[in-house]
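Morning. Coffee machine broken again, so started the prediction first thing and wrote up yesterday's gels while waiting. Chain of 95 residues, entered below exactly as on the submission form.
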Amino acid sequence: MCSTTKLRIYLQNVRKNYTLVDTFLESQKDHYNIFFVQESPWNFICYAPSTVSLEGDKVVGAPIHPDWTKSLETLRTFLELWLLFTLISLDLGLA
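Came back before lunch.
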């Protein structure tokens, strides 16, 4: 468990590598409190019910982990993709 007396922050440009973020969230959950992710990856997660399509609408998102909460920044590109998102350890008690 991370000590809240020392705030540990990590910033990484992950170049849209989903596996890298997923691995970091698990392996570093006890070492860092805040993880800033540049060039965040987005993958298909599931289909959501839709009134237009029988298959449903695709739900796309960044990796999630039960020990971290996600805070998305509002900075976007012309393609409407997030440039940066923040993951905050639940150990901090801020979520």
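The two ends are 16 Å apart (CA to CA). Going to sketch it on the whiteboard this afternoon.
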